[in-house]
Design brief:
By secondary structure, the protein is an alpha+beta fold. Helix content is 20%, strand content 39%. It has 3 helices and 5 strands. The chain has a 5-stranded antiparallel beta sheet. The chain is elongated.
Length: 139
């Protein structure tokens, strides 16, 4: 399942060069991930099970700038699961021409809140990431 989220670039997102500052991409990506979790709904079950989701690593490749007043489209999908970690791939494109501005791999783990230890990502946990619906563009 690929989830799509749109965000408009505002003046305060930009640096003195007039393009989105690299640190702002982290905020854009996080906002898109929150929207992903709201639309899949399966992740709502984590707290009831005493579990939490934590980001372990972020790798971003910047390809071209996003400029003031552009609309960015962020497509998020689960790319891989391995043992106690999973990777979400997020691609940021410009709505105006579809060109890729950045690609990010977000590595995360599901932890037991009581112990803080990562758990194995079995089929039951993996299913939580695809149990909902896909958002309509701009939703």
């Amino acid at each position: 399942m690929t989830h799509e989220y749109r965000i408009r670039v505002r003046n305060f997102h930009c640096d003195t060069y007039g393009h989105v500052n690299n640190a702002r991409y982290l905020e854009f990506l996080e906002e898109a991930r929150w929207d992903f979790t709201e639309h899949t709904r399966g992740l709502d079950a984590l707290p009831d099970r005493g579990l939490g989701l934590v980001v372990a690593a972020v790798n971003i490749e910047f390809r071209r700038p996003l400029l003031r007043e552009e609309t960015a489209v962020i497509r998020s999908r689960m790319a891989s699961y391995e043992g106690r970690r999973a990777v979400m791939r997020q691609e940021v494109t410009r709505a105006s021409d579809g060109k890729t501005a950045a690609v990010a791999d977000i590595t995360f783990a599901i932890i037991e809140m009581a112990s803080g230890r990562a758990i194995e990502l079995d089929e039951g946990i993996r299913a939580l990431f695809v149990s909902g619906r896909t958002a309509e563009p701009g939703a």
